[in-house]
Amino acid sequence: MQRLDILFEATSRDIDCLRLNRENVPAEELAGRYKKSLEALQARIIRQLGEMIVILCFDRLPKAENQDEKDLKLYTRCRKNAFITFASAGSQKAWERCRAQVLEEYDLISAINTALAAMAGPAEEQYFPYWRRHCLKTAEGICNDLINARWNPEERAWELESGAITFMFPFSEEKKDDTYADGQLSLYEVAGKL
């Protein structure tokens, strides 16, 4: 069983436990005798929801199979920053809505969908430096070793070995980014701009 499945099942059980406690235990007891236990349960639900969101938004993006130490550090930093960006003030309303969906409405699927809609952009934005590190100029043109693809300027897309194309993180020579001035090519994410 994969980590996401385990988290989903555990969170669903915890949400059911929270709902049953609120339905069957008097509010005075929940606010008094069971307050710490209830708060711990709610915190665990939110932590597990956060883990699921990061897995769904960030871990779906390509990752090098054999990462060197620099790669691993960059990937880890990008992944952490994606969640920090989501939890920041810009996404606060979405996160509050997610909390309400799991803690008050007991609806894990809706909370996940709300978070995915809000976090997909920040996750890809934070992932970009990692992606960029894997774009190389070769004799065959611009290549990306994460997805084993070559940039096709006519299609404005990455051409996979299978012949299929993907528009993930299109290549652009127009935008220069000196943040990673290590000989890597400048790319930018243009979701919704093509």
Summary, kept brief:
This protein has 194 residues and is of the alpha+beta class.
Task: Explain the overall architecture.
With 194 residues, the protein is α+β, with helices and mostly antiparallel strands. The protein has 2 domains: 3-133, no CATH class; 135-180, no CATH class. Helices cover 55% and strands 9% of the residues. The protein contains 6 helices and 5 strands. It has helices at 3-24, 27-31, 35-57, 69-87, 92-103, 108-133; strands spanning 135-138, 141-144, 149-152, 157-160, 165-166. It has a 5-stranded antiparallel sheet. Helix 1 runs antiparallel to helix 3, helix 3 packs across helix 6 and helix 4 runs antiparallel to helix 6 (108-133). The longest helix has 26 residues, at 108-133. It is elongated and about 70 Å long. The relative contact order is 0.10. Residues 174-194 have low confidence and may be disordered.
Topology:
Blueprint (H helix, E strand, L loop, with lengths): L2 H22 L2 H5 L3 H23 L11 H19 L4 H12 L4 H26 L1 E4 L2 E4 L4 E4 L4 E4 L4 E2 L28
